[in-house]
Amino acid sequence: MRPAHELAGIFRQYGASYRAAHPLSRQQRRVMRAIQVCRTAALGAHVEACSQCRHTRICYNSCRNRHCPKCQNTERARWLESRKAELLPVEYFHVVFTLPEEIARIAFYNQAVVYALLFRAAAETLLTIARDPKHLGAEIGFFALLHTWGQNLLYHPHLHCVVPGGGLSPDHGHWVGCRPGFFLPVRVLSRLFRRLLLAALEQAFRQGKLRFYGDLESLQDAAAFGHYLTPLAEREWVVYAKPPFGGPQQALEYLGRYTHRVALCNERLRAVRNGEVTFQGQDYRRKGQPQSRLMTLPAARRLARRPPLRCPQCGSPSMIRLGFLPAYRWPAVPPEDSS
Q: Among 105-114, 154-163, 283-292, 306-315, which is the least confidently predicted range?
């Protein structure tokens, strides 16, 4: 059944006024336009015919944009089918690495650089701790998926890693499984991740790869940048491992939801009236209270802006597969002139 409200309708109603008042990158404008014209006459149409009764109907073409809420189901099904051959008959774990808010503010203006560093630090953390004989003593493999938003549509860069519960022995001769229900110690992961990412940020700063604007402009000074990062070295960072999946098939289904997920799906939209949009979402900042709630935003000033801003900059990685899994790809930190 078609949803009562669609993001495309909000863009058609409020997108033009927002674009006229706020600067957007070429990529963000392309995303807005793709969502706005998806399955309309602007993209043309095709004829579908029933092979039994010969009934025909005209259907408008889809935009197939990665960020369109109407265009992910088919791609997700194809992706899931191609991944089935990679499943292992073991437990799977979900490990999440989250950037502290102070670093997220830097990442907002340096997405390609910081996202690549985030992937590297998280991957090296998992591989290093897993290789340690005190913990697992194995070479693991995993998927790492970048998300840059939360369900409340606030900027919230973090990595979702889906990891089989074990790995190959150092000589690659046999399988080393983890303890049932337990993967790796979270506090050990958190502290190594913190050390690696802070060191990588300091190196990127020395190499001139970071840019600072607005209230962060003072961080162009080396002393100010060092002072900004110092408190983060003492704080506990958010890294957590969710309980294991029920099996490899459930892990694959869960992973598919993350690889083909959009910032705001049409099913979460509840109302559009008087220039405001109400949607269902998880508000992670409301501690001690129910997290799932209705949230309302001014459509023209804020909501129209948020889904396009969730598009990573060109050159930013969004997914890697590492270790013994196929299609190894390590995200490169862009040179200075690409940020």
A: 306-315
Structure confidence at residue 97 (pLDDT): 95
Cα dihedral across residues 259, 119, 327, 333: positive or negative: positive
pTM for the whole thing? Answer: 0.77
- Which residue shows structure tokens 């650089």? 113
Domain ranges within the chain, ordered by starting residue: 1-71+264-309, 89-251+312-338
Task: Give the chain's length.
Answer: 339
- Name the more confident of 16 and 233: 233
